[in-house]
Specification:
about 270 residues; alpha/beta; 8 helices; 12 strands; about 25% helix; about 20% strand
């Protein structure tokens, strides 16, 4: 495994792969498995290696599920299709960003503390075009290939952002609806100290929706929070921090200025 990646088993059927600054997840068994998000550009080899280690060689995923389509969650495309010809599912509101129709709103590089907001100027904003492989998630909340899981619309960080939740054990794959590191800080990204934070501020264009999404996820009382950035968290400390984020979202997550920050939230 490359030194830029780590692999961690979170449970009998859930694997976390950290590649550079972002997490992606593999769920399933050697009989059937699904990829959740596709990491940074260059992630294909790491994804394939992790899949072969845990599910066996030449076993293709049944599907790829995207929490959203930002560049650090779709980076393995289109290279991944040279290995596996599989469908990609996302929320209907996310499809224009995945089929070459629209670019994401530009980041706001002058909010938050740390270097990452300034670096966001050069981050790809899309669109990418995944062609006819892209499909809308089922309206009934089912997650293709992931029995027992349901998707929840958690907009804010992007229009069609979704989180995945399993009621049986309250496992949550939250994408970037909230994260467990201060993603604006290079130091925090490097140290991976576990702390619950709001969505990456420089790439979040709808703070009202982001607040509602965090409130909805906190109300689920998850036992595991597997996020797009940061080390997954579980237990009482995670619950306490997520509750605090939900209760004090405007004060601790929303920047006090910025082009996407509503006037009534500025200076909170």
């Amino acid at each position: 495994m490359a030194i830029t990646a780590t692999v961690e088993r979170l449970g009998p059927d859930l694997i976390r792969v950290r590649h550079l600054i972002v997490n992606l997840y593999l769920w399933g068994t050697p009989e059937r498995w699904v990829l959740i998000d596709a990491g940074m550009p260059g992630a294909t080899g790491i994804i394939v290696e992790a899949a072969e280690e845990h599910f066996g060689e030449r076993i293709a995923p049944e599907a790829v599920i995207l929490t959203h389509g930002h560049f650090d969650h779709v980076g393995a495309f289109p290279d991944l299709f040279e290995r596996w010809d599989v469908p990609v599912y996302a929320h209907p509101l996310e499809l224009p960003y995945l089929t070459g129709q629209e670019s994401y709103p530009p980041p706001d590089p002058f909010i938050g503390e740390g270097v990452m907001p300034l670096l966001s100027i050069v981050f790809p904003k899309g669109p990418i075009d995944l062609g006819d492989r892209v499909r809308a998630l089922p309206q009934n909340g089912d997650v293709p290939g992931m029995s027992g899981w349901r998707w929840i619309h958690t907009p804010g960080h992007s229009d069609g952002h979704v989180s995945l939740y399993r009621d049986d054990d309250r496992s949550l794959i939250a994408g970037d609806a909230f994260v467990t590191t201060k993603q604006e800080s290079i130091y925090a990204i490097f140290t991976q100290e576990q702390e619950v934070h709001g969505p990456p501020a420089y790439f979040t264009p709808d703070w009202r929706a982001a607040k509602r999404s965090v409130e909805a996820l906190a109300a689920l009382r998850p036992s595991l929070a597997a996020t797009g950035h940061g080390t997954p968290m579980r237990g009482e400390d995670m619950t306490r921090q997520l509750d605090a984020l939900s209760a004090n979202f405007e004060e601790v997550a929303v920047p006090d200025h910025g082009k996407y920050v509503p006037d009534e939230m500025k200076g909170s």
